[in-house]
Write a structure and sequence with these properties.
- By secondary structure, the chain is α/β, with parallel strands linked by helices.
- The chain has one domain: Aldolase class I (TIM Barrel).
- It is built from 7 helices and 7 strands.
- It has a 7-stranded mixed beta sheet with strand order 1-2-3-4-5-6-7.
- The structure holds iron/sulfur cluster.
- The site of iron/sulfur cluster has 10 residues, from loops.
- It comes from Ruminococcus intestinalis.
- Keywords: 4Fe-4S, Iron, Iron-sulfur, Metal-binding, S-adenosyl-L-methionine.
- InterPro entries: Aldolase_TIM (IPR013785), rSAM (IPR007197), rSAM_sf (IPR058240), rSAM_TatD-assoc (IPR023821), rSAM_TatD-assoc_bac (IPR023822).
- This is TIGR04100 family radical SAM protein.
Amino acid sequence: MADILYVYKTSIYANLTNKCPCRCTFCIRNNTDAIGNADTLWHKHDPSIEEIKKAVDDFDFTGFKELVFCGYGEPTNALDNLIATAQYVREKHPDIKLRLNTNGLGDVINKKPVAEILSKYIDSVSISLNTCSSEKYDEVCRPVFENAYESMLKFATDAKKYFGHTQFSIVDTIPQEDIKACQKIADDMGIYLRIRKYSA
Ligand code: SF4
């Protein structure tokens, strides 16, 4: 069975689903089957809430400050389990901060706006901006949805309104002028932009 909870650097990560509407050219899933202390992050089937709760019960949270919803898939593809897991962790470990790492396509995946509801259970959100235009986004992220970039930006607007902390992220492998354009988009929206170093 794949790891549901694993440790990467100083945080606990929750790997709730392998489903994702994108096929990003840079996706780490293309290069390796696991990260951090996980053995594999490929589920034979996506975990049920009972399996997730058991993983939470069995995990030693001592010394950790944060749990991040981020695995080998898009967490909002498992919206009900994402919310139920956040509720369960908050109940059992109220001092642990909860963060969602997302491609920002939760609204189109779930056919409804999801930022407000998620903000009730999760402290902060990091959204993969990835690039600076719809055309480039379609080339790099290869989403199954049309107008995915616009949908991600709409989610980000909502997230900024509802979450305690919202940030965009990009990876530093894109051209400098695209980084600048991303910075402008983030600045115009009043959202912090995190520029991550690429790690294969
Ligand atoms: S959105 Fe994330 S999980 Fe999905 S393909 Fe892109 S990098 Fe991989």
